[in-house]
Amino acid sequence: MIETFQMVWNSQDLGTKTIEHLEMFFWALLFSILFGILIGILIYKKKQLADIVFQVLNIIELIPTLALLILLLPLLGLGSGPTIAACILYSLLPIARNTYTGLVTVNTQYLQAAQGIGLSSKEILLNIRIPYALPHIIGGIRIAIVFTMGVVTLGGVIAAGGLGQSIQTGLQFNRPDIIIVSSIWVGILAVLFDFFAGVVERTLTRRNHLG
Amino acid sequence: MTHQRLFDTIESVQTKNLTKIYDNKAVVEDLNLTVEGGELLILIGGSGSGKTTTLKMINRLITPDKGSVFINNTDTKNYDAVTLRRNIGYVIQQIGLFPHLSILENIGLIPKLEGIDKHTIKEEVIKLLNLVDLPAEFIERYPHQLSGGQQQRIGLARALAMDPRLLLMDEPFGALDPILRKQLQEEFLSIKAELNRTILFVTHDIDEAYKLGDRIGVMDQGKLIQIGTPEELLLNPANDTVANLVDATSKLRHIENFAVKEVMNPLPDHYILSEHTTAADAIQHLSTHNIEFCLIGTKKQLIGYCTLCTLLKTKDKNQPLNDLATPHHHLQSSDSLSSALHSMKKDNHFLSIIQKDDKPQGYLLADALLLKLI
Amino acid sequence: MVDYLELLVFDPLPEHLMLVFGSLLISLLLALPLAILCLKNKHLKTLIIGFANLIQAIPSFAVLALVVPLLGIGFTPALFAIILRMMLPIIKNTYIGLTTIDTKTLEYAKGLGLTDRQILFQIRFPNAYPAFFSGVKFAAVLANSLAILSAIIGAGGFGVNVFKYIHQYNIQSLIYSIIPVILIAVGLEITLILLEKKLTPVPLQKS
What is the nearest CA distance from B53 to chain A, expressed in angstroms? Predict the structure, then answer.
């Protein structure tokens, strides 16, 4: 079995594909987090705006993955461009919504106490809301990680490279060994990332002593 | 970023025509209230009486619809809200310690935001923990590791972090069980003098009000009905609402809260006879003035007392009062009624002379007292 | 125009709908008993939900590809992969819906004398409606999305055209070919929302 793995790894150059894969994953996740959290912070005070923003983002979630990738082709061509863009679009909702929920659902007694002892709005945001929201945000990022891994893998069919491409090769040439090795390898990576995100999420929740 | 210190001492906190309206109903109506510098004023009332709303209008968590709040004769509208709150200590019923911060970080939050260095903050926090009777090791603990009573003590310490001259306390012991509440009240009472601040304290518990307050203000339906010392409220309730609230009908409950000077009978000069007066003359004197006992000696020096009964039973009516005097029981005018009665019972006296600075002020008859308390 | 419709919409439609609704139905039939099983046995719950959580992290494409060495290509393997994918959202959401009830309410029900079974039907089920529907909606979107992909492992459906045009790099036709899919996705969501409104008892409805 290990021999098969090594053989496929070398013949399909999985090392390079993995790096391609992770590169796309990294950039997509980075921008998703930046934009997602930013959106969450911008709208947490205005419920009506938040409702509209989430409606729009919800609609994006409805679009099937492949369909979204294809919609982006006229704009961004083939390859990693539309793949990364699609990842970001899908990841905005979980991150923004979790950021929003985290910022907004701070227990009112803490907010009242904070206001009463003399913290300004900005100080409350920095010292109370954001620390409270952190585990929620990480929860959203965790979801985004799973989405992003999925979309990057799919990007293989629109010539984005990465491990999805070797899976496609395996399917096209009816090579079960390539299919199995590539799929399981990407599966392991995905599970590992999700697991670590989960650990961070749990640690932050405990550190906030919120049970 | 530091905010300025607004007041070094509080001379007065005043509300003028303070009004707050919710849903077309006045929750606080035309409130004119003055808190004297250095006193602990209790605001008491049922739920919906407007007491918490009033408190929150003082630190501008709620904006009044009409009227103003003056601190040291300056309208608080002129101050920035955040600066104002940094200058006022605030303690709430739900305590509200931040769960993600340690005790040190909780108490030291405002000082940190004010730019005070870490070392000084730590020193101050340990001093405050000392004040509220908690060990210094607690600085590293987190709120969820502390009991309710300990948390509320931290809440008080946090309010005192910037050394504010004015404290606002909104039912601070309300979330605790009755036994714990009593304990914290006792402890608060013991540090009250040490605190030496102006305190506005909201509660719905009349016993707490009696225990802690210098003066008590009764609110009902948004209006201030009466304000005064505990004794004033008990003896002269302005209306039935106040009477029911302060439990004026069962004054007997409050014998701990009364000082003997509130219920003693006055001692006119004719009660005092010289020790040389004969029994016969004394009897005459007592029946003329319609009194049943007399005190023997001078105002400056009393030797004892004698009852009419004893005088009538004396065989030799020429005996001077000197020989018939029984040493009298005496009390200080500020003694509590309950300690007075206990002392009289212990020494088996039915009569006691109330003195202030060694001068007799009045007298107390144990059995007649019962009538006064009903 | 008629040719277009026939090629891009009517031909792939039956198989696509069979994939989506077939998998939905079978998933529901399998997932609901499993969710209730999780309720009864703590160890089973950790096992089932833990396992399902694991599978969920694996990219859909990889899951789809992995059934090929096992089951070959075509409609049935695709159906199998889609069902596998949908299990977690339905099980997890249903489980959360069944269990996230105020403990006092449950205590009270027990105190009144309700059996576990009665509590399940009278209290837990109604309480679970919103969470359950939320899981179903999510699963339906997944199914729709995967159904197109499954063309790559030999199933029919809209994916056949999509991959054909990708291969040809015919962008215009590509766009046309995915429009029906997006419309179906939106239609599915709306239908489920309306269904949910109709079936959920009024007090439990979210505003």
Answer: 13
Q: What are phi and psi of C84, to 5 degrees?
A: -55, -45
Contact B269, B299 (CB under 8 A): yes
What is the Cα–Cα distance from C136 to B125, expressed in whole angstroms? 54
Mean pLDDT of B169-181: 89
Give the amino acid at B42: I
pLDDT at residue A26 in the model? 94
Count of positions (residues) in chain A? 211
Strands B293-297 and B302-307: antiparallel
What percentage of residues in chain B have a pLDDT greater than 70? 96
- The whole-number average pLDDT for the span B127-137 is 92
CB-based contact C141:C29 (threshold 8 Å)? no
Q: Are strands B351-356 and B359-365 parallel, antiparallel or unpaired?
A: antiparallel
Any CB–CB contact under 8 A between A118 and chain B?
yes
For chain C, the domain total comes to 1
Query: In terms of residue numbers, what domain contains C164?
Result: 2-204
The mean pLDDT of A170-184, rounded to a whole number, is 89
- Measured over the CA atoms of residue A91, residue A92, residue A95 and residue A98, the dihedral's sign is negative
Residues 6 or more apart whose CB falls under 8 angstroms from that of A9 comprise A15, A181
What does the CA dihedral A196, A202, A207, A209 come to, rounded to 10 degrees? Answer: 180
pLDDT in tens, B301-319: 888 888 888 888 888 888 8
Q: What pLDDT score was predicted for residue A85? A: 94
Interchain pair A118, B86: CB under 8 A: yes
ipTM: 0.86
CB under 8 Å to A122, separation ≥6 — which residues? none
Closest CA to B99 of A209, A42, C7: A209
Interface contacts A/B by beta carbons within 8 Å = 67
List b or e across B74-83, with b for residues whose CB sees 16 or more CB atoms inside 10 angstroms. Answer: eebeebebbe
- DSSP 8-state symbol, B205: -
Each residue's pLDDT tens digit, A18-48: 999 999 999 999 999 999 999 998 998 888 9
Q: What CATH number does the domain containing C9 carry?
A: 1.10.3720.10
CB contact under 8 Å between B85 and A115, yes or no, is yes
Query: Where are chain A's structural domains?
Result: 2-210
CB under 8 A, 24+ apart: contacts of B141-148: B141/B102, B141/B103, B142/A209, B142/B99, B142/B101, B142/B102, B142/B103, B143/A209, B143/B97, B143/B98, B143/B99, B143/B101, B143/B103, B143/B106, B144/A209, B144/B99, B146/B103, B148/B95, B148/B175, B148/B176, B148/B177, B148/B180
What's residue A27's pLDDT? 94
**Nearest in space to C200 (alpha carbons), one of C127, C96, C129, C128:** C129
The pLDDT score that the predictor gives to residue A155 is 92
Question: Does residue C206 register a pLDDT over 80?
Answer: no
Burial class (CB in 10 A: 0-12, 13-18, 19+), C2: exposed
Of C77, C33, C85, C81, give the one whose Cα is nearest residue C56.
Answer: C85
pLDDT score of A211: 39
B 97-136: CB under 8 A from A: 97-100, 109-110, 113
User: Searching chain A, which residue's CA lies closest to the CA of residue B159?
Assistant: A117
CATH superfamily of this structure's domain A2-210: MetI-like (1.10.3720.10)
Q: Do strands B166-170 and B198-203 pair parallel, antiparallel, or not at all (unpaired)? A: parallel
Higher pLDDT, B346 or C83: C83
Which chains have at least 3 CB atom pairs separated by less than 8 Å from chain B?
Answer: A
Could you report the per-residue pLDDT of C90-141, keeping only the tens digit for each?
998 898 888 888 787 788 887 777 787 877 787 788 788 888 888 898 899 8
Tell me which of A207 and A183 has the higher pLDDT: A183
> Considering the entire predicted model, what is its pTM?
0.73
Query: In this structure, how many other beta carbons lie within 10 angstroms of the beta carbon of residue C29?
Result: 10
User: What are the two backbone dihedrals, phi and then psi, of residue B355, each rounded to the nearest 5 degrees?
Assistant: -120, 150
